[in-house]
Amino acid sequence: MFMRLIKIGVPVVLILMLAAFLWYTWPKQIDMTLEGIQYQLGEEHADYARPVQVRIEGEIQRRLTKPPIFTGKMDTGEVNGVNPFQQDIPHLKVRLSRSDPDWLQSIRLDQGQIQRRMIGSLYSTPTMNQLTITLMHDNQGEETGWSSSDGFMISAPAHTREEALEISKALMKDTLDGYELK
Predict the structure, then answer these.
(1) Are residues 120 and 92 in contact, defined by beta-carbon separation less than 8 angstroms?
(2) b/e code 162-172 from CB counts within 10 Å (16+ = b)
(3) Are 127 and 105 in contact (CB under 8 A)?
(4) Other residues' Cβ atoms within 10 Å of the Cβ of residue 136
(5) Are 122 and 94 in contact (CB under 8 A)?
(6) Tens of pLDDT, residues 29-82
(7) Which helix (H) or strand (E) holds 148?
(8) DSSP structure class, residue 34
């Protein structure tokens, strides 16, 4: 009787474990728009806050020991006449992590040559329901690099600069090393 339970029980447990693994790692479709705020860090820039919609379309693949991967499109539309996500090759592939952000880059074809431009870095929850993007350009679209004292950011979902700043602080806390965003 005990041997019969083992012969039946072990395969059932293995099948259940395999099904759970496949369910967990199978890519999940994502299609959402988050209302957010583009703003500039620094107390002297406290009046700079612009509403922005972050459109996300693609899939998230969870992994057992590493952060999830997002593959798809992300777009903020034009902010001050510039769309940082405008690109000819629309699919991004980025890790979704708070402590280890991934770089976002624009890829365009220019006279048969691939041109890459850094957009910034992405801090996100595993489901992308909250995110912060550090932007590598200013509000006129000029490339500037990024600084924790006066860098440009997009955070969502948020309706005010204060909400956006709190999201950034929460998502970036592991990498700020005690520095406070203002």
Answers:
(1) no
(2) ebbbebbeebb
(3) no
(4) 20
(5) yes
(6) 999 999 999 998 988 988 989 999 999 999 999 888 888 989 888 888 766 556
(7) none
(8) E
